[in-house]
Design goal:
Blueprint: H1 3-38, E1 43-58, E2 64-78, H2 90-93, H3 98-103, H4 110-138, E3 141-143, E4 150-151, H5 156-159, E5 167-171, E6 174-175, H6 179-187, E7 193-200, E8 203-210, E9 212-217, E10 223-228, E11 231-232, E12 237-239, H7 243-269, H8 281-294, H9 296-313, H10 322-335, H11 341-369, H12 372-380
C-alpha cells in the first residue's frame, strides 16, 4: 500500500469515525440531559468521551460541557452520581440536605428517574426517525416490488414450485410489501423452513420452502452464513414520501432494524451464528470511512443503523446500561422502596465487568478480522 493511501486511511477514517460516534453519543446523552433538566435535576457534567478532558466550558446552569480524550462514549453526570455510570454516591446521598435532595437524581420519584434514563435510548431512535424521514422525503425510499422476475434453477424457490410472476405477500405470516423486506428475513435464516404466501393471478397460495444455507463474504473478508431463496426481482425505484408517510416508514424501518439485530444476536447466543460477527470500534471506523467514500447518504444510513443499535443495546437489562437502571426502577416500583445502595453498587460492578469483557472481545474480533493479529504474528515468526 502506498504512503498516500496510508495517510488517507490513517487520517480520514479516524476523523469520520470520531465525528460519527460523537454525534450519536451527543444525541444519546442529550436525551438524558434534556429530560433531567425538565425534571429539576442538576447536571454537573456533560462529556463526549471518557478520560482526561481535552477542552470544555461551563454554562450558566453550572454544567461543565467537555470533550475527553477517548471518543468511545460519553456521559451525563447528575447531582448525587458517584461516576459516569450514574451509580449513586453513597456518602453524598446519605448526607444531603432537603434542598439538595430536590435537585439530586437519586431522590427523584421513580417515574422521573425512569423517564430520564429512558430518554437516552429514545433520543437515538428519534434521531434515526428524523434522518430516515428526511432521506425518504428528499432522496426517496428504496422500493422493489416482491414479484418473482426470475428463478435460479436448482434453488429452493424453483424446487418448491414457485413461478415467475408470483407476488409474494407474506413469509411465515409476516406481511411484506417490498422485496428488500423479504431479503432481510431470508438472509437471517439459513437452512430454515419457511412458508411463503403468494398471489398468483386471482389465486392465493401458500408454498413451503426449505431455504438454502449459503455463505456471504463481508467487506472484512469474513464468511457468514445466510439464507437463500433463489429468486430475483427487478424494478428498483426510489419513492419520495410526504412528511407524514416518511415518518411512518422511518419508524417502521427502525423497528425492523431492531428486530433484525435482536434476531441475529439471538442466533449468536444459540450458536447458530459465529461470535466473529460481533464488531467493535475498528470495524465501525472502517465502515464509516468506506461508507463516506460512497457518499454522504450511505454514511448517514450507517449512522442511523448504529444509532438504532446504540439505543437498543442500552435497553438491555444489564446494570451500568440504561436497561439495568430501568430494571432496578421496576423492582423499586414493585417493592415500594429503592434497592439498597450496596445491592445497586454490586450490580454496577458486575455490569461494568460484563460490558468491559464484551468490549475487549469485540476489539479482539476487530484485530483478527482486519488481519492485524496475523500481521503481528508474521513479524515475529
Amino acid at each position: 500500500m502506498e504512503i498516500s493511501q496510508w495517510l488517507h486511511y490513517g487520517l480520514n477514517y479516524p476523523i469520520l469515525f470520531i465525528v460519527l460516534i460523537s454525534v450519536l453519543v451527543f444525541v444519546h446523552e442529550f436525551g438524558h440531559y434534556w429530560v433531567a433538566r425538565r425534571c429539576g435535576v442538576k447536571i454537573e457534567k456533560f462529556s463526549i468521551g471518557f478520560g482526561p478532558e481535552l477542552f470544555g466550558w461551563n454554562d450558566g446552569h453550572g454544567t461543565r460541557w467537555c470533550f475527553a480524550l477517548l471518543p468511545l462514549g460519553g456521559f451525563v453526570k447528575m447531582y448525587g452520581d458517584a461516576n459516569p455510570a450514574s451509580a449513586p454516591d453513597k456518602d453524598k446521598v446519605t448526607h444531603m440536605t432537603e434542598e439538595e435532595k430536590k435537585i439530586a437524581f437519586f431522590f427523584q420519584p421513580v417515574a422521573k428517574r425512569a423517564a430520564i434514563v429512558f430518554a437516552g435510548p429514545l433520543a437515538n431512535y428519534v434521531f434515526a426517525w428524523v434522518v430516515l424521514a428526511i432521506i425518504f422525503m428528499t432522496m426517496g425510499q428504496p422500493f422493489t416490488k416482491p414479484i418473482v422476475h426470475s428463478l435460479i434453477e436448482g434453488k429452493p424457490a424453483a424446487q418448491a414450485g414457485m413461478q415467475i410472476g408470483d407476488d409474494i405477500t407474506a413469509i411465515d405470516d409476516t406481511h411484506i410489501t417490498r422485496f428488500e423486506e423479504l431479503q432481510q428475513y431470508v438472509r437471517l435464516r439459513p437452512g430454515a423452513h419457511v412458508v411463503l404466501t403468494v398471489q398468483r393471478g386471482a389465486e392465493t397460495k401458500t408454498i413451503p420452502v426449505d431455504l438454502l444455507r449459503d455463505n456471504m463474504r463481508d467487506r472484512f473478508g469474513e464468511d457468514h452464513p445466510i439464507g437463500m431463496l433463489g429468486i430475483e426481482a427487478t424494478g428498483l425505484s426510489y419513492i419520495k414520501r410526504d412528511p407524514f408517510s416518511a415518518v411512518y416508514y422511518a419508524v417502521g424501518e427502525t423497528l425492523n432494524f431492531s428486530k433484525v439485530t435482536l434476531t441475529a444476536m439471538g442466533q449468536i447466543v444459540m450458536g447458530e451464528r459465529s461470535t466473529s460477527e460481533l464488531g467493535g470500534p475498528l470495524r465501525i471506523a472502517q465502515m464509516s470511512g468506506e461508507m463516506a467514500e460512497e457518499g454522504f447518504v450511505p454514511w448517514l444510513i450507517l449512522m442511523v443503523l448504529i444509532s438504532v443499535n446504540l439505543g437498543l443495546i442500552n435497553l438491555f437489562p444489564i446494570p451500568v446500561l440504561d436497561g439495568g437502571h430501568l430494571a432496578f426502577y421496576a423492582f423499586e416500583a414493585l417493592r415500594g422502596k429503592p434497592m439498597s445502595l450496596e445491592f445497586q453498587e454490586t450490580g454496577y460492578r458486575i455490569g461494568t465487568g460484563l460490558v468491559l469483557c464484551l468490549m475487549v472481545f469485540a476489539f479482539w474480533n476487530d484485530l483478527v478480522s482486519l488481519k492485524v493479529i496475523k500481521y503481528l504474528v508474521n513479524l515475529v515468526s
